[in-house]
């Protein structure tokens, strides 16, 4: 069975960096709903126009906009995957569970990246993104050139990375995603993961965790 993971964690906990690396290491498809939505906004698609004012307020997209978008993506990726930014509400957990059941597929684990609030604020001020290829990372990953290490594009702070926006997203996280965490915990799918180390160290431990899941047959 292909491995399928949901990544959970507060904003700036490293879900993007770690999700991408994990997907690459394991040969899985990777979905960042944040990047997907920001692209939709830039392309001014119908969804993008609806999403823009909501995202600008630091709020999550309502399920009636988000679920069809996810369904579309899942339909195009029948192998294993890593989801970053979904599910963000208990209703979205249900949508995903129903989808998987209909297709005879299974979730391997929901992995919660844990980082203390104060460290999240520090990380936020260091976070950059490439508008060309959607690389995201830290200032110190740039080799001093201010260029994307993947494609050479000019990187910039993410437009939604202001402190006010962060507080709003963190409040949304506590309100909507903590119940998702509780739900996966009850279902025995949750794995807690200490994500306070350097990105390289976190990536290494992350891969170890996933290998253990596999060894125990939980991700078979
Ligand atoms: Zn790039």
Automatic annotation (TrEMBL):
Residues 32-61 are annotated as: NMP. ATP binds at residues 12-17, 127, 197. It is an enzyme of class 2 (transferase). Monomer. Pathway: Purine metabolism; AMP biosynthesis via salvage pathway; AMP from ADP: step 1/1. AMP binds at residues 33, 38, 59-61, 85-88, 92, 158, 169. Its EC number is 2.7.4.3. Consists of three domains, a large central CORE domain and two small peripheral domains, NMPbind and LID, which undergo movements during catalysis. The LID domain closes over the site of phosphoryl transfer upon ATP binding. Assembling and dissambling the active center during each catalytic cycle provides an effective means to prevent ATP hydrolysis. Belongs to the adenylate kinase family. SUPFAM superfamilies: P-loop containing nucleoside triphosphate hydrolases. InterPro entries: Adenyl_kin_sub, Adenylat/UMP-CMP_kin, Adenylat_kinase_CS, P-loop_NTPase. Gene3D superfamilies: P-loop containing nucleotide triphosphate hydrolases (3.40.50.300). Catalyzes the reversible transfer of the terminal phosphate group between ATP and AMP. Plays an important role in cellular energy homeostasis and in adenine nucleotide metabolism. Pfam families: ADK. It is found in: Cytoplasm. This is Adenylate kinase. Keywords: ATP-binding, Cytoplasm, Kinase, Nucleotide biosynthesis, Nucleotide-binding, Transferase. It catalyses: AMP + ATP = 2 ADP. One of its GO terms (biological process) is AMP salvage. One of its GO terms (cellular component) is cytoplasm. One of its GO terms (molecular function) is AMP kinase activity.
